[in-house]
């Protein structure tokens, strides 16, 4: 039986879109207002784990398809990069979808499709476990496609004769009594915990100045902030 380590190193893996939809269902939030670093620290503090890394994964629309969300995720990613978060992005693919309405008519709309994010997360969890980079992997999502990763982690633990845990952290409320990822330890994020980790920064595009408005004094030029390294996910990986 592997010995449980006294200090448990934890790495957090965020599926940005999945976590947003979980928070929307549980708490009604209409945009991704979470702070990944704060959430990671809160979960680790509650369970006595030592946070050693945060990794964030999301699809980002092209500016030509959706300028608002392209700006939002670029700005939020820049802030996470300044906090030493490892960020992986890939383009959202848009296609027309149709649904049939109750009156028999059809409605066509443009839907963004996020391909390959779960595959990238799975590969990174397994790779870091093989390299003994963590004792606890925290998946901030409920994607059941990742349940097979838990089986692989158990095999790695057996082969390396060491203690490894995989957890699924997700928003939970009386209106969203949902399950975590199968074969993982479930970490239910209640509203007080989630709300204590809200990112209060505004990543929305700034409106252009109104014509005829009095010009503000010109501030001295400042060097641009160093952007994070945005690593595209391989294009040939899919769900």
Automatic annotation (TrEMBL):
The keyword NAD does not apply. Keywords: Plasmid. It comes from the Bacteria. Residues 220-230 have a biased composition (Pro residues). The lineage of its organism: Bacteria, Pseudomonadati, Pseudomonadota, Alphaproteobacteria, Hyphomicrobiales. Residues 199-239 are annotated as: Disordered. InterPro entries: NYN. One of its GO terms (molecular function) is RNA nuclease activity. This is NYN domain-containing protein. Residues 12-154 form the NYN domain.
């Amino acid at each position: 039986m592997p010995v449980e380590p006294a200090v448990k190193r934890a790495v957090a893996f965020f599926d940005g879109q999945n976590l947003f939809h979980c928070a929307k269902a549980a708490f009604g939030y209409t945009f991704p207002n979470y702070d990944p670093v704060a959430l990671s620290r809160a979960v680790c503090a509650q369970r006595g784990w030592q946070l050693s890394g945060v990794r964030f994964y999301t699809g980002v629309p092209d500016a030509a398809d959706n300028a608002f969300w392209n700006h939002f995720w670029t700005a939020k990613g820049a802030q996470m990069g300044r906090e030493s978060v490892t960020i992986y992005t890939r383009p959202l693919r848009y296609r027309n979808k149709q649904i049939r309405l109750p009156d028999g008519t059809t409605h066509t709309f443009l839907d963004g499709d996020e391909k390959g994010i779960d595959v990238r997360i799975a590969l990174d969890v397994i790779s870091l476990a093989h390299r003994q980079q963590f004792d606890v992997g925290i998946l901030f999502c409920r994607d059941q496609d990742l349940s097979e990763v838990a089986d692989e982690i158990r095999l790695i633990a057996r082969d390396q004769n060491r203690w490894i845990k995989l957890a699924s952290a997700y928003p939970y409320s009386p209106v969203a009594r949902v399950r975590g990822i199968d074969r993982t330890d479930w970490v239910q994020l209640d509203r007080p915990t989630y709300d204590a980790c809200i990112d209060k920064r505004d990543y929305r595009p700034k409106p252009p100045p109104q014509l005829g408005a009095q010009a503000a004094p010109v501030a001295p030029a400042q060097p641009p902030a160093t952007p994070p390294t945005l690593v595209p996910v391989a294009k040939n990986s899919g769900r």
